[in-house]
């Protein structure tokens, strides 16, 4: 770790301790240091821009209320990503309950009227690969995003998502099989000129 990285980590942990004592200024510092990274993770899993903003708010409300539970001996980023994934799951469950009520009241509503808007992520992503990843289920997508875009180990992903390691391994394997199948279809349709298997080569 470089001296600059060490200094940055020291500054962050100093503000975490001060935030525990109720410092709003330290909360603002932590927010500014982490908000882009948190929004990036949310954007990779949630398609609707307004939903992303709502989840961001919930993440930092939860951060403020649960900062005393954070173990200073463990990586802060992983802990914050755990809060983020938990809030994404909560939001999806809440939205599903609202959707079921709405669907019951408006039985003639077409599927096209309720779908999410296209996922136009603002940061640099390989758009076609993200389109493939977005086609995965809500259970499989977080494993792939955390593994290949955030480079967490499978055990770290299990800790973040609060599920057994065996479940993470199973979802990881299933997701890669589905991605490879879809990549093969694309390659066949395009005469093999769109090879995106780079994401499948890492273990």
Structure overview:
By secondary structure, this protein is an all-alpha fold. Helix 1 (3-20) crosses helix 2 (24-45). It has helices at residues 3-20, 24-45, 49-66, 76-105, 111-114, 127-134, 141-149, 154-161, 165-189. The longest helix has 30 residues, at 76-105. It starts with a helix and ends in a 14-residue tail after the last helix. The chain is elongated, with a radius of gyration of 19 Å. It contains nine helices and no strands. Residues 96-125 and 191-203 have low confidence and may be disordered.
Strand content: under 5%
Radius of gyration: 19 Å
Low-confidence spans: 96-125, 191-203
The geometry reads as elongated
Count of distinct strands:
0
List keywords for this structure.
about 200 residues, mainly alpha
Blueprint (SSEs and pairs):
Elements lengths: L2 H18 L3 H22 L3 H18 L9 H30 L5 H4 L12 H8 L6 H9 L4 H8 L3 H25 L14
Helix pairs in contact: 1-2, 2-3, 2-4, 3-4, 4-8, 8-9
């Amino acid at each position: 770790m470089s001296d600059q990285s060490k200094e940055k980590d020291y500054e962050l942990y100093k503000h975490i301790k001060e935030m525990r004592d109720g410092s709003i200024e330290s909360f603002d510092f932590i927010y500014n240091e982490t908000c882009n990274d948190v929004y990036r993770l949310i954007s990779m899993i949630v398609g609707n821009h307004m939903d992303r903003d709502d989840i961001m708010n919930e993440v930092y409300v939860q951060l403020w209320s649960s900062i005393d539970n954070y173990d200073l001996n463990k990586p802060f980023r992983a802990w914050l990503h755990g809060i983020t994934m938990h809030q994404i799951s909560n939001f999806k469950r809440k939205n599903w309950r609202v959707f079921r009520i709405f669907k019951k009241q408006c039985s003639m509503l077409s599927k096209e009227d309720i779908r999410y808007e296209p996922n136009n992520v603002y940061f640099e992503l390989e758009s076609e690969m993200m389109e493939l990843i977005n086609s995965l289920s809500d259970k499989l997508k977080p494993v792939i995003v955390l593994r290949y875009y955030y480079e967490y180990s499978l055990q770290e992903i299990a800790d973040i998502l609060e599920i057994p390691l065996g479940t993470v391994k199973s979802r990881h394997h299933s997701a890669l099989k589905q991605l490879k199948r879809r990549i093969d279809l694309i390659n066949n349709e395009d005469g093999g000129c769109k090879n995106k298997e780079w994401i499948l080569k890492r273990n």
